[in-house]
């Protein structure tokens, strides 16, 4: 059994573990392993220096020589400072200093005051010079328990851990204290502070969710920005919640001050292309920051009040930008586009999307080269204190799941904030991994400026009220240090105040003149209106046959699974040869292949999508002996676009959010997310509600994202029958998205291609089938895919009636139930009923339906048939639309209202299914 390091030194245990580690490093715990690695690293460096100087190494240069016991105690002391020093760092600006951790007292290591003047060789700490123990303790305090606390000993990777340790410990030794431009830092702090106070004065009582108390965040952000050219970063993709957002928009992204102030005026109406807009502290922005070395593109994603929901969207946008600028190739390490996420402490600890997106960070289909997370740690969540908001010591503990280094830093120490920012960027660029800066600060006001925080935190807010703003504190400090004169510091403040007043006066002047053009500055994307006009999506026979041949050709020597070799591939070959029986998965691959040939890249991600939940897709073939992969769609043509298909982590919100963000940044790509079962989309409801269905209306950010949601009642119980069609239809308005429930492979082929063949972009929500994947009737012919064919939003009856005037009843339906209805009609030889399929439910094409119904002039009976319970499915949505067209009563045929989507018993399912089919044809 592996042992672990004790905080109290035990010489016998040390020697035992050291000998064991020498024989086999894996035989001891990770703590001991890290301990001995550090010891050996220091020892090796010391010997190299001695050899280079031509002198003997200091006495005691091996672990077995004299003073092993004392040296072991010192090594344990150093190790524990590296591990626990952060627990007594002075992080909270509202406190005098960090409380001492008794586990770091000398007595814990078998040491006492009498040892303080003993000489120790520091080959295992810093660079190997000899110093007194008391000096070492002071150095350890300065390094690990100052205004920054480090957590990095949880990292298993030796190279990463040693790099961080060296970076930390060299900070006070081999290089002078980092020099910063104190005038520039003062400007950043005063810009932030004075912006907030100016708005508070000009717009009394207006919510702004100020950054006051956390102005140090601007030092972190601006320091990162200034280092970007040196680090090779060309673009920054950002996400954050509402606190401090207006400050970041103005003072980091440089959004027009005049426009921002105008948004506070009581008569402000957004100058929208379409839609309803959003509150000002949810809006995004994109701009360019000019630096001496060039410009850096900075984009802040629009964000709802669902605090951490935007994280995945930002990661997807960053990945898309990396693709667009060539930062994602085989020779690229994703260093040119940097994601930065700002979090609140309570949200980082409490919101599930944080862990889900952290889990994305190193996965092949989702990594973005590492994200810098900045936590604006106000030490409170609304009115809830940390002890009631999390079970962990730190808000950041969730980040340890991916072994991210964590830098806790006092938010009123600008030098330390700047060092943390530079170190975080260097780490990210070097290792391509996430890093967290946990900036301890406070919230000067309550949740908003009208909220009275002293109701619930009276003691804290006595301290807050008595504390000067950080800009004032730092201004006094730089003057006292002599870095700036009082006149110079006052001049910076005056310059900022004058600029704020000038911006306000410009706003007033233009308002008085009725000139609103100056208030533009929106980065919204206008697009054409939605149209029902048919879109040519058919392809040539040559193209279809070519793609089909690629899909059915296996490399020589590749050991394809026997079932695929004997059934899957031959079935596709037969369809190509005979021009019939193209099934759902084949149609999907043909759509993808044809788009790839035409220059449109394709991306599909989700749980188990490479094979497909129902073993139908097989977009990736695996060698049965070697598991070598072969992806046919990457071999369509020499100049084809890129095809990406990724199995995702077991998350809906993070993956759907990521792919949605990807769709915003890569508009020519067909981007699809597939749920394992349609009801799994429940786990991503925030992304659906706040982004996919409403983002265009709120933020003018169109998307052509496709959601594939397996849906259909086959007796699989309440959890795997319904994709909750009713929920999507309830979200439909203002042509915001498309919702469809298709019945043929060709329809699926055309609707996918249509996504890339129109001048406007709309999300597409597809109720995809399960049983129809293999149902013999649910197939298409070659002609259905060729030029001249296109997607039809409503399908007329497939039956060729001799006398359409004899049709008395019309049954309307959508999706899989059509085949059950048609089968029953044939069995019972019913010849007075037409069945019309509503393939696209929204936007609803009423003109097309009226044209189809004109064939049946004598029809007087109207029925809507569905598999879902009456309070679910499309019934509530469709009935008013049909009544408006038909001007008559619409009868319902389907399951009765239910609190559960479906019966758990397959026998009960069959009875209910037969009953609803019979109801549809009742006299």
Automatic annotation (TrEMBL):
Which SUPFAM superfamilies does the protein's record reference? Thiamin diphosphate-binding fold (THDP-binding)
Gene Ontology CC annotations of this record: cytosol; oxoglutarate dehydrogenase complex
Name one molecular function that GO assigns to this entry: thiamine pyrophosphate binding
Q: Which enzyme class?
A: oxidoreductase
Q: Which cofactor does it need?
A: thiamine diphosphate
- According to the entry, every stretch annotated as the Transketolase-like pyrimidine-binding domain falls at 582-775
Per UniProt, the keywords (alphabetical) are: Oxidoreductase, Thiamine pyrophosphate
The record's InterPro entries line, in alphabetical order, gives: 2-oxogl_dehyd_N (IPR032106), 2oxoglutarate_DH_E1 (IPR011603), DH_E1 (IPR001017), KGD_C_sf (IPR042179), ODO-1/KGD_C (IPR031717), THDP-binding (IPR029061), Transketolase-like_Pyr-bd (IPR005475)
User: What biological process terms from GO does the record include?
Assistant: tricarboxylic acid cycle
Under Enzyme Commission nomenclature, its number is 1.2.4.2
State whether keyword Flavoprotein applies.
Answer: no
PANTHER family associated with the record: 2-OXOADIPATE DEHYDROGENASE COMPLEX COMPONENT E1, 2-OXOGLUTARATE DEHYDROGENASE
According to its UniProt entry, the function of this protein is described as: E1 component of the 2-oxoglutarate dehydrogenase (OGDH) complex which catalyzes the decarboxylation of 2-oxoglutarate, the first step in the conversion of 2-oxoglutarate to succinyl-CoA and CO(2).
Family according to the record: Belongs to the alpha-ketoglutarate dehydrogenase family.
Q: What is this protein called?
A: oxoglutarate dehydrogenase (succinyl-transferring)
The major lineage groups are: Bacteria, Pseudomonadati, Verrucomicrobiota, Verrucomicrobiia, Verrucomicrobiales
């Amino acid at each position: 059994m592996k042992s672990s390091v004790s905080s109290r030194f035990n010489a016998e245990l040390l020697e035992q573990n050291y000998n064991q580690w020498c024989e086999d490093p894996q035989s001891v715990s990770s703590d001991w392993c890290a301990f001995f690695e550090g010891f050996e690293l220091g020892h090796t460096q010391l010997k190299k220096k001695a050899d280079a100087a031509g002198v003997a190494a200091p006495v005691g240069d091996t672990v077995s020589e004299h003073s092993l016991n004392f040296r072991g105690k010192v090594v344990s002391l150093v190790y524990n400072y590296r591990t626990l020093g952060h627990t007594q760092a002075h992080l909270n600006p509202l406190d005098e200093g960090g409380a001492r951790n008794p586990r770091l007292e000398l007595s814990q290591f078998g040491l006492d005051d009498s040892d303080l003047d003993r000489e120790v060789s520091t080959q295992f700490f810093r660079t190997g010079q000899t110093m007194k123990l008391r000096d070492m303790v002071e150095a350890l305090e300065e390094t690990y328990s100052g205004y920054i606390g480090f957590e990095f000993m949880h990292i298993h990777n030796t190279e990463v851990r040693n790099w961080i340790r060296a970076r930390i410990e060299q900070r006070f030794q081999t290089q002078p204290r980092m020099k910063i431009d104190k005038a520039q830092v003062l400007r950043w702090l005063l810009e932030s502070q004075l912006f907030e106070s100016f708005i508070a004065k000009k717009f009394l009582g207006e919510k702004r969710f100020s950054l006051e108390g956390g102005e140090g965040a601007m030092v972190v952000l601006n320091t990162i920005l200034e280092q970007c050219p040196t680090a090779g970063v060309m673009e920054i993709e950002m996400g954050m919640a509402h606190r401090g957002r207006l400050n970041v928009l103005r003072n980091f992204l440089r959004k027009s001050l005049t426009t921002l102030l105008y948004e506070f005026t009581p008569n402000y109406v957004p100058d929208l292309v379409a839609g309803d807009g959003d509150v000002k502290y949810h809006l995004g922005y994109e701009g360019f920051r000019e630096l001496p070395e060039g410009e850096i593109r900075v984009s802040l994603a629009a964000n709802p009040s669902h605090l951490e929901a935007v994280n995945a969207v930002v990661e997807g946008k960053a990945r898309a930008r990396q693709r667009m600028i060539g930062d994602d190739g085989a020779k690229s390490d994703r260093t040119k586009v940097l994601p930065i996420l700002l979090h609140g402490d309570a949200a980082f600890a409490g919101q599930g999307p944080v862990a889900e997106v952290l889990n994305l960070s190193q996965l092949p289909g989702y990594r973005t080269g590492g994200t810098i997370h900045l936590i604006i740690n106000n030490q409170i969540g609304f009115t809830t204190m940390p002890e009631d908001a999390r079970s962990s010591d730190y808000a950041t503990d969730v980040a340890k799941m991916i072994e991210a280094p964590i830098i806790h830093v006092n938010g009123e120490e600008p030098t330390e904030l700047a060092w943390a920012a530079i170190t975080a960027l260097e780490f990210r660029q070097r290792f391509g991994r996430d890093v967290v800066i946990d900036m301890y600060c406070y919230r000067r006001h309550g949740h908003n400026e009208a909220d009275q925080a002293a109701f619930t935190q009276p003691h804290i807010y006595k301290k807050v009220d008595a504390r000067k703003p950080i800009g004032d504190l730092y201004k006094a400090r730089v003057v006292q240090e002599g870095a700036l004169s009082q006149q110079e510091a006052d001049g910076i403040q005056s310059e900022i105040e004058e600029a704020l007043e000038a911006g306000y006066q410009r706003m007033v002047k233009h308002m008085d003149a009725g000139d609103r053009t100056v208030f533009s500055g929106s980065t919204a994307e206008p697009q054409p209106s939605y149209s029902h006009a048919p879109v040519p999506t058919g392809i040539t026979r040559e193209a279809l046959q070519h793609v089909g041949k690629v899909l059915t050709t296996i490399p020589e020597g590749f050991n394809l699974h026997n079932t695929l070799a004997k059934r899957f591939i031959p079935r596709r070959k037969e369809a190509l040869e005979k021009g019939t029986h193209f099934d759902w998965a084949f149609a999907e691959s043909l759509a993808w292949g044809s788009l790839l040939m035409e220059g449109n890249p394709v991306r599909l991600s989700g749980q188990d999508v490479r094979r497909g939940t129902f073993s139908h897709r097989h977009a990736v073939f695996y060698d049965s002996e070697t598991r070598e992969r072969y992806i046919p769609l990457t071999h369509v043509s020499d100049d084809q676009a890129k095809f990406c298909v990724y199995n995702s982590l077991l998350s809906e919100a993070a993956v759907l959010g990521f792919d949605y963000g990807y769709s915003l940044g890569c508009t020519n790509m067909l981007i699809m997310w597939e749920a394992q079962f349609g009801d799994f989309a429940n786990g991503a409801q925030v992304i659906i509600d706040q982004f996919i269905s409403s983002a265009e209306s709120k933020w003018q950010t169109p998307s052509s994202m496709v959601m594939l949601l397996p849906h259909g009642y086959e007796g699989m119980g309440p959890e795997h029958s319904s994709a909750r069609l009713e929920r999507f239809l309830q979200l439909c308005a203002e042509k915001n998205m498309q919702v469809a429930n298709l019945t043929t492979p060709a329809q699926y082929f055309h609707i996918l291609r249509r996504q890339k063949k129109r001048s406007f972009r709309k999300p597409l929500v597809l109720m995809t089938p399960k049983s129809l994947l293999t149902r013999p009737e649910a197939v298409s012919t070659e002609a259905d895919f060729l030029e001249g064919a296109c997607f039809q939003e409503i399908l007329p009856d497939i039956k060729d009636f001799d006398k359409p005037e004899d049709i008395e009843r019309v049954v309307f339906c959508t999706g899989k139930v059509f085949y059950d209805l048609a089968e029953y009609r044939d069995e019972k030889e019913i010849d007075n009923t037409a069945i019309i399929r509503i393939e696209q439910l929204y936007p609803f094409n009423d003109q097309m339906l009226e044209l189809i119904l004109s064939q049946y002039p004598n029809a007087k009976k109207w029925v809507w048939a569905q598999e879902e319970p009456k309070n679910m499915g499309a019934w509530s949505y469709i009935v008013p639309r049909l009544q408006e067209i038909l001007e008559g009563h619409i009868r319902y045929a389907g399951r009765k209202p239910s609190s559960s989507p479906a019966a758990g018993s397959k026998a009960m399912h069959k009875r209910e299914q037969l009953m609803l089919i019979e109801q549809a044809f009742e006299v």
